[in-house]
Task: inverse folding
């Protein structure tokens, strides 16, 4: 049962698009319409906001870390 919960948690956590959420919250619009169209930290950096790119990178890295810790 614990494996199934970890699997579901990891899947749900991995589906959170932090790059998209952060840029929308900052009022920069849809990051998918800027640069490469990717929602990752590199494309957020193309918006010209290094702080948001760093936050996206950190949150994306923490997604993987949290999923590994739960497993």
Result:
């Amino acid at each position: 049962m614990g494996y199934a919960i970890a699997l579901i948690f990891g899947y749900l956590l991995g589906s959170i698009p932090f790059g998209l959420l952060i840029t929308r919250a900052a009022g920069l619009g849809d990051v998918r319409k800027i640069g490469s169209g990717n929602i990752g930290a590199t494309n957020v950096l193309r918006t010209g906001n290094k702080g948001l790119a760093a936050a996206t990178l950190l949150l994306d890295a923490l997604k993987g870390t949290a999923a590994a810790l739960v497993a």
User: Anything to note?
Assistant: The chain has a mean pLDDT of 90. The first helix runs from residue 2 to 14.
